[in-house]
Amino acid sequence: MTDTLLLLHGFPVDGSMWDLQVQALSGTIQVLAPSLPGFGTQPGAGNVMTMEGAARRCLEALDTAEAGRVVVCGLSMGGYAAFELWRRAPERFAGLVLSNRISVPTLVISSTADELIPPAATTPLAEQIPNAQLEMIEGVGHLSNLEAPGEFTLLLERHLTLCGML
To answer: Structure pTM?
Structure first.
């Protein structure tokens, strides 16, 4: 079983949105960035992609990769998928990036120019999670891992270290 970082993409992109983080971190930890059902080359899971279907896809990817402890990072829609994954398999989590009220180390990342989910919405979220850390990336919008990949990856590395995985 291998320590793993699981990166869950937002809508309407696919797992390739994490390519820069996968490249930067894959030499130090196993990194998975699966495309959720109906995105990228993944077949759909019916007429509507549900978070249940997304969580099942994530569990399949984790099992195939023989992942042990996992830090899950969800961006936008990926955050909702992470919530469902937590509901189904909390014992697999070593940490979470962008979450709600759980008992593992939690990092909430926001951006000052995010108009879709502005800092005014993420700050209260972080304040409600015990011992959560809020990090703000200056001057970028909603897809912060693409707009500021170096800073986003550094935050991931710090969180993985906090979770005892690096």
So the answer is: 0.69
